[in-house]
Design brief:
By secondary structure, the chain is an all-alpha fold. The protein has helices spanning 3-31, 62-66, 70-76, 116-119, 127-135, 137-140, 154-166. Helix content is 32%, strand content 0%. The longest helix has 29 residues, at 3-31. It is rod-shaped and about 135 Å long.
């Protein structure tokens, strides 16, 4: 190959390379889009939900009443017999005799030396007070001399309280389940003829001439 032929080939390769680079830059200039300084819209990230507020139901609930079992309560009460008894005319021990205790004022059993905290508590041993006290005595009446960790299970407390309820010359009635507070509801006024009247916005076609009213095309759905 002579020198002229070689130069032609080199020029063709160079022209092809320059053409490819030019096409690439042109395409970049045409297609390239600058990112805006401020996004067109922003996605709002929801804040994490706070802790769920626990709703305290009124006492007693039906589940608590269902656990009132005197026979089972007698078995649980064995934990208490080192200090108490619930027999009619029974002697006081480290703790007072508990006959007739349900419905009685706290710190009033004859012949027992109560702590000042118990005597001044003003508590009357109804079902709710007994349940709260038996769960953790030292927390419910601060300063009480009763050194007992408490009954953590609701069913144990309900059973023991039933056992103490019937340990009486005149047992108080079993409690009724407490009703939850009723939710507020909107009042709807119904006329005497039982026809519910609902105000609707005016229809602009009501006052239009009949010839201006065009029938609508009915739509059907197979959903």
């Amino acid at each position: 190959m002579d020198e002229l032929g070689f130069n032609k080939i080199a020029a063709a390769v160079l022209a092809t390379a320059l053409g490819y680079m030019g096409i690439k830059e042109l395409a970049h200039a045409v297609i390239h889009v600058e990112a805006p300084a401020k996004p067109a819209y922003a996605l709002e990230i929801p804040e994490a939900a706070g802790p769920v507020e626990e709703i305290e139901l009124p006492f007693p609930q039906p589940t608590w009443i269902a656990e009132m079992d005197a026979e089972r309560g007698a078995k649980v009460f064995k934990k208490c017999t080192s200090c108490h008894n619930a027999e009619e005319g029974g002697n006081n021990g480290t703790g007072p005799n508990l006959w007739n205790v349900v419905g009685a004022p706290a710190g009033q059993h004859a012949g027992f030396g109560y702590s000042s905290a118990m005597k001044s508590s003003g508590v009357v041993w109804n079902f709710e007070e007994l349940d709260s006290y038996l769960e953790r005595p030292s927390k419910y009446i601060s300063g009480t001399a009763m050194n007992f960790v408490g009954l953590k299970k609701e069913k144990d407390r309900a059973a023991v309280i039933e056992y103490l309820r019937v340990a009486s010359s005149n047992p108080v009635a079993r409690p009724e389940p407490a009703a939850a507070s009723e939710m507020d509801t909107e009042e709807v006024t119904v006329p005497q003829d039982d026809t519910l009247i609902v105000d609707a916005p005016p229809n602009p076609l009501d006052d239009a001439p009949m010839e201006d009213v065009q029938p609508e095309t009915a739509e059907t759905s197979e959903e």
